[in-house]
């Protein structure tokens, strides 16, 4: 079990700060580029976050629950990616599409998000494993 030290909580908080800013920036850039009639910005954030978490899962295998690996996992996965990716925005945007009578778009958002995020996580994991000679 990982002990939640003040230092570990600080790296998680700093990671969350970075992830939140990155999410706001990327979703805005994508939304302005392609329009906001469909939540492409949130999808871009969640798919890129899934890719990153797949890479990190391959590169930072669980160890003894101590040391640098735990700190990196806490900072990058719990902090940065936990704040960067957003199931809450995905849920709210899907609900908004449903409330507006856009059932097909809502279904497309759910199906595409799950399929693309799962695929991105698997791709990230396999790619990092292949590059490092690990098992993927």
UniProtKB/TrEMBL annotation:
Na(+) binds at residues 82, 85. Fluoride-specific ion channel. Important for reducing fluoride concentration in the cell, thus reducing its toxicity. The gene is fluC. Keywords: Cell inner membrane, Cell membrane, Ion channel, Ion transport, Membrane, Metal-binding, Sodium, Transmembrane, Transmembrane helix, Transport. Na(+) is not transported, but it plays an essential structural role and its presence is essential for fluoride channel function. Pfam families: CRCB. One of its GO terms (molecular function) is metal ion binding. One of its GO terms (biological process) is cellular detoxification of fluoride. The keyword Nucleotidyltransferase does not apply. This is Fluoride-specific ion channel FluC. Its main location: membrane. One of its GO terms (cellular component) is plasma membrane. It catalyses: fluoride(in) = fluoride(out). InterPro entries: FluC. The chain crosses the membrane at residues 6-26, 38-60, 72-98, 110-131. The keyword Signal does not apply. It is found in: Cell membrane. Belongs to the fluoride channel Fluc/FEX (TC 1.A.43) family. It is a multi-pass membrane protein.
């Amino acid at each position: 079990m990982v002990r939640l030290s003040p230092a570990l909580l600080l790296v998680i908080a700093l990671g969350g700060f970075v992830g939140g800013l990155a999410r706001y920036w990327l979703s805005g850039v994508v939304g302005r580029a392609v329009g906001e009639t469909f939540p492409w910005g949130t999808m871009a954030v969640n798919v890129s976050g899934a890719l990153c978490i797949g890479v990190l899962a391959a590169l930072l295998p669980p160890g003894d629950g101590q040391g640098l690996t735990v700190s990196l996992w806490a900072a990058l996965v719990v902090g940065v990616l936990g704040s960067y990716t957003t199931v809450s925005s995905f849920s709210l945007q899907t609900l908004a599409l449903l409330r507006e009578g856009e059932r097909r778009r809502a279904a497309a958002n759910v199906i595409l998000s799950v399929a693309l995020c799962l695929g991105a996580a698997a791709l990230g994991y396999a790619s990092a494993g292949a590059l490092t000679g690990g098992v993927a």
